[in-house]
Structures are given as C-alpha cells and as structure tokens.
C-alpha cells in the first residue's frame, strides 16, 4: 500500500488552513510516519505535482489522500474517513508488527528503528545509529524527504546565506512550505543580504530572520567595543554567542529538529560528522546534515545545474562566508575555511552553533 497526501499551497506560499490542521492531527497522533509521500498543489504553479494529480483525479478540495493498493487508487477527501478506513487498520497492523519485533529484538519502532526515551528533551528519539546506516549511502534529498515528512513543520533549515542555499532549493522542491531561518548577526555582508532577498523572490517564500537580543548586544558593545572580537578566541566566542548562539537556542527550543549545511570536508573539526545526530547542546533535538558526505564540487555542481541563486562573494574568493569583519577571501591553495577568523588556530574555528557536549 502506498499513501500520498496532497496539500495545497496558497498565493502567499503558506499551506492552506485545513492542510495545516490535518498535518497537525497526523503529527500529534504519530500518524505522519504512515504517509509515504507528501506532494503539493501550488496555486501559483498549475504544473506542480499536486495540481496535476488534483486535475487527473478530479478533486477540487485540499487536502486529500490517495491510497494505492494492488493497482487500485482510492481517494479520501476527509481525514476522518481516511482514518477510519485506512489509518486505523495500518495502525493496528503496525502495533502487531512492533509487538512481534519487540519479542524478537527488543524495543523497536514500526520501522525496526529502536526508540530511546533518553534524549535530553525527554521525547522518544529514533535510533540514530540505525538511521545513519540507512541514510549513509543515500542522497541529501532522500534524507530531507524523510526529515520533512516526519517532522515538518517542527523542523527548519538554519541557512547561513552561503553555499548551503543548495539545501533551500532541495527542501522547497520536496515541500514548498519548508521552514528556513537565518541568523542576522547585524554584521553580515551586503552580498549575503542580497542573496536572502534573491531567494525570497525566486521561490516566493518568507525566510525567518533571527536577530540578537538587543539588550545583550548593547551591553556587549558598551563594555567591549565594536570590534573587540579581534582580541582573541574568548572575545570572538562571546560575540558569536550573543549574535548567533543565543538567537539559535531560542529558535531551536521551539523545534523537534534542525537542518544544517555542514560537510565533512569543510574543516578539521567536522571530519567525523554524521548525517543524523541528536544535538545535546540544544535540548536533544534531531540534527540533520544532509550534505555531510558531499564535497565542495558536489555542492557547486548542484547550484549550477539547478540555477540556484548564490552569494556573489563566492566569485570573489570567499569559499566560506560568515560575518563581514570575520571573513576574508582566501588565496589559491589555502584551506576553504582559512578566511574565517584567520587570527585563530583551525581547531578553535567553530562559532558555537555546532558543538558536541563532552
Ligand atoms: S563571526 Fe565575528 S562578528 Fe559575527 S558573531 Fe562571530 S565574532 Fe561576531
């Protein structure tokens, strides 16, 4: 059996109200895991997959469910009828399967992924080792599809305004209602702000912009000065903490998972990066790193092939981009992160967004 959920995207880029309500019911009942595919009927794009399906199947309301079994398609326009006729039976079968698996192998969920209730947020968490094994050889899109189908709207991309814009493109193809946020430290380059606006315009989305707490920032500047971060790693980390880490912490407290553009080839601090992690530093939520196994060239192939807007600083010798005063262009042959906090040693070059609790 394959279940497809078709939702509608309105002119403003948001999901329709009924679609949001049904998603919330599926999520709160832990039923989203039984939906194999979510597609969108985007009113701005008659050729979107959902619009095409709605035309073919002559359905005029959203959301609706398509259940395919033995070559037959059944359409459900009501969540309640779908739940009664399909979900309840699937849930019952899954419960029996879970019970059988428990007897055979211990405490596992319906996918054979073991569930541990020891995450810092106290919520049931999937078995990260099993998920990493499952997704290691898979594409970034496959991991994103799983993450969005399982956790949306409680999962969002932390977009730095740099080359991880490739993930923005992938996510919006999978789910046009995907959530994307960015940290505006107040010290970004004009080119980075230009890119954020270019992305808003191209995809017709709203990027969630997080600002530092104004009282904290004012206190820091009053006591330490405007460019005090050049004084050393302690000063720099204080600035990153106020401008990046604290706003991020606030955002992540409202999510079940976040998505990053981290890659293993970016830095010595990232060589052991997993695609899926539990982020103990931020409340034990899920952290997905879909590009972990990609190289710099893989990312740029994607950006060029898919005509994704990118930060113009990349054309000026900036392979890695952060705040304006803390990023310089690199010379040919230099490490790609040599231009970030160049006055520090490579081992200390993290801003506090991506840390592991010891
Ligand atoms: S990168 Fe530089 S300016 Fe930006 S928050 Fe960190 S220390 Fe401050």
Question: What is the correct CATH architecture of the largest domain?
Answer: 3-Layer(aba) Sandwich
CATH class categorisation of the largest domain: Alpha Beta
Q: Which hetero ligands occur in this complex? A: iron/sulfur cluster
Number of strands: 10
Q: What is the assembly state of the chains in this entry?
A: single chain
Main sheet overview = 6 strands, mixed
Proportion of beta-strand residues? 5-15%
Descriptive report:
The protein is an alpha/beta fold and 358 residues long. Helices cover 37% and strands 13% of the residues. The chain is built from ten helices and ten strands. It has helices at 17-28, 49-57, 79-105, 128-135, 140-151, 165-174, 190-203, 214-224, 233-252, 296-305; strands spanning 2-9, 37-42, 64-69, 72-76, 155-158, 179-183, 208-210, 257-259, 276-279, 285-288. The strands form two sheets. Strands 7-6-5-8-10-9 form a six-stranded mixed beta sheet. Strand 9 (276-279) and strand 10 form a beta hairpin. The protein is elongated. Residues 104-124 have low confidence and may be disordered. Iron/sulfur cluster binds next to helix 9.
Protein topology:
Elements: E1 2-9, H1 17-28, E2 37-42, H2 49-57, E3 64-69, E4 72-76, H3 79-105, H4 128-135, H5 140-151, E5 155-158, H6 165-174, E6 179-183, H7 190-203, E7 208-210, H8 214-224, H9 233-252, E8 257-259, E9 276-279, E10 285-288, H10 296-305
Parallel strand pairs: 1-2, 5-6, 5-8, 6-7, 8-10
Antiparallel strand pairs: 1-3, 3-4, 9-10
Helix pairs in contact: 5-6
Bound molecules: iron/sulfur cluster.
Iron/sulfur cluster binds at residues 185, 187, 229, 236, 239-240, 243-244, 322-323, 325-326, 351.
């Amino acid at each position: 059996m394959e279940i497809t959920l078709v939702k509608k995207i309105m002119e403003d880029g948001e999901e329709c109200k009924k679609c949001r309500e049904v998603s919330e019911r599926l999520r709160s009942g832990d039923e989203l895991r039984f939906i194999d595919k979510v597609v969108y009927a985007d009113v701005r794009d008659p050729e979107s997959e959902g619009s095409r399906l709605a035309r073919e199947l002559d359905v005029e309301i959203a959301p609706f469910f398509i259940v395919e079994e033995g070559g037959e398609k059944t359409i459900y326009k009501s969540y309640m009828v779908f739940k009664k006729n399909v979900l309840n039976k699937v849930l019952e079968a899954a419960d029996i399967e879970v019970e059988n698996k428990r007897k055979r192998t211990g405490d596992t969920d319906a996918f054979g992924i073991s569930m541990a209730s020891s995450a810092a947020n106290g919520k049931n968490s999937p078995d990260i080792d099993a998920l990493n094994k499952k997704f290691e050889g898979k594409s970034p899109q496959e991991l994103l599809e799983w993450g969005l189908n399982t956790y949306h709207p409680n999962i969002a991309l932390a977009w730095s305004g740099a080359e991880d814009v490739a993930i923005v493109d992938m996510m919006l193809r999978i789910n046009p209602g995907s959530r994307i946020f960015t940290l505006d430290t107040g010290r970004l380059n004009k080119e980075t702000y230009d890119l954020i606006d270019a992305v808003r315009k191209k995809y017709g989305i709203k990027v969630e912009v997080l600002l530092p707490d104004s009282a904290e920032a004012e206190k820091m500047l009053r006591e330490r000065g405007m460019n005090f971060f050049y004084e050393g790693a302690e000063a720099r980390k204080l600035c990153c903490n106020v401008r990046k880490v604290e706003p991020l912490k606030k955002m992540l407290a409202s999510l079940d998972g976040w998505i990053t553009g981290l890659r293993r080839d970016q830095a010595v601090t990232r060589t052991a990066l997993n695609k899926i992690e539990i982020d103990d530093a931020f409340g034990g939520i899920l952290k997905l790193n879909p590009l972990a196994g990609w190289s710099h060239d893989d990312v740029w192939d994607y950006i060029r092939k898919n005509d994704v807007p990118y930060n113009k600083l990349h054309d000026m010798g900036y392979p890695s981009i952060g705040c304006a005063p803390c990023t310089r262009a690199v010379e040919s042959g230099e490490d790609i992160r040599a231009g970030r906090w160049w006055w520090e040693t490579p081992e200390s070059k993290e801003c506090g967004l991506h840390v592991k609790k010891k």
